[in-house]
Amino acid sequence: EEAPAPTLYDRLGKTEGIAKIVDGLIANVGAETATPNSLMLRSHKPMLDAVNGVNGQPPTDPTRLQRLRNHFVDQVGEATGGPLTYKGKSMLVAHTGMAITHQEFSIWRQQLEKSLNDNKVAEADKAALYAIIDKMHDDVVNH
Ligand code: HEM
Fold first, then answer.
1. By alpha-carbon position, which residue is closest to atom 43 of ligand 1?
2. 122 lies in a domain?
């Protein structure tokens, strides 16, 4: 009996590996929002304001980014064949009202790419993950 072939979830390092990739993505997006002429600040400002507070006011929703992070780990874990279950909103519902542009989607994808490279994900596994991500493009963009 041969062992079953590892799933993409296994090849990304299971939940621990996926969490590192997601945390890297979030760190990269956060860094981009702090740059002059950021392309990601517009879409992320409501969440950042809720987490950080505005004008010295206390945060209105301090765990909002943490919830997004945990949901995203579950979503990738489920979509790559792992034992996780995504319990968040559909991609269409989650991104409706944000008017995310194709350009913003591309910049987001570059932040993911950086994290995949930093985590030394193999090219074939990056391609397999992009196939999953790019299928969501139309649900995320222009709503
Ligand atoms: C295929 C690509 C993407 C995936 C898989 C994804 C995934 C997610 C997930 C899982 C959530 C949380 C939904 C929930 O908790 O119910 C979310 C929310 C969010 N996403 Fe995305 N996302 C993608 C693209 C983008 C892009 C391109 C942007 C902006 C440039 C973006 C900005 C946001 C923001 C601001 C939130 C809301 C956080 C909040 O208000 O609490 N996402 N996304």
1. 94
2. yes
**ipTM reported for the complex, 2 dp:** 0.96
Q: 96 C-alpha vs ligand 1 centroid, how far in Å?
A: 10
Q: Which atom of ligand 1 is nearest to the CA of 134?
A: 1
pTM beyond 0.90, yes or no? yes
Structural domain of residue 51, as residue ranges?
A: 8-140
What residue ranges in the chain does DSSP mark as E strands? none
3 within domain boundaries: no
Looking at every residue in the chain, the average pLDDT score rounds to 97
CATH of the domain at 76: 1.10.490.10
- 126 close to 44: Cβ distance less than 8 angstroms: no
The number of domains in the chain is 1
Q: Is the Cα torsion angle 38, 61, 137, 143 positive or negative in sign? A: negative
Atom 2 of ligand 1: nearest residue by CA position: 133
